[in-house]
Every structure is written in structure tokens, then in C-alpha cells.
Specification:
The protein has 121 residues and is of the alpha+beta class. It contains four helices and four strands; from the N terminus they run H-H-H-H-E-E-E-E. The protein has one domain. The mean pLDDT is 85.
Amino acid sequence: MRKLLLPLLVICLLAGCKEDEQPDLICGVQNPAEEIAWVKELVQDMESSEFSREYSYLRSGVYDGETYLYVGNCCPNCYWVPVIYNCEGEVVEDPDFGIYDLVDLRMIYHSEASICDFDED
């Protein structure tokens, strides 16, 4: 019986010694709203407007292996078109995809005053 316990104990100890996995990164950083200058500026602009504080948000998603960020809006009486950015902060003109084609959606920013309902958050 002891011969079986020692190998099991060694296996359990080795399995518990795995290195911590890297956190999921957005555009190469953990917190783009603080670590990427153009995103930080965009968030500050959104926070400075009462309308944006209530209705706007910033998300990231992946399409065809590339990460994109977009400013969304949940205003019930507004017509809006999302502005899609690449990780360098360039607006993606006439993309081959829409926000509904993005996968691995992650919230980057929404104001505490937001009235938007984010089901997956």
C-alpha cells in the first residue's frame, strides 16, 4: 500500500506546481484603459460627457485572429454606428466584419453611471 501512496503523492505535488497561466491580454496589455495612451484618452473623453457616461461603452473582440476595440452605445432612441479601432488606435474604415462577427468580447470600459445592461458581464 505504501508503494502506491508515494507515487500518488509525488504526482499530486507536481501537478500543483504548475506555473501561473498568463492573464488574457487585450492588445498586449492587461488593462488597456490604463496602459494604452489612446484608449485612456478615449475613456477620458467618454467620461467627460454625460451622454457617454450613461450610454457609451468600450469593448474588445477578435475577428480572424486580430483584436479590435469598438465604442458601442445603448441609447434606446439613437441611431449609432460603432466605431471600430485596431490595436494601434486607427479607425478601421469599411471593415469586412461587424461587431456581431467579433468573438471573445470583453468589456474594457463603461461608466459606473451607465444604464446599459451587459448580460455577459
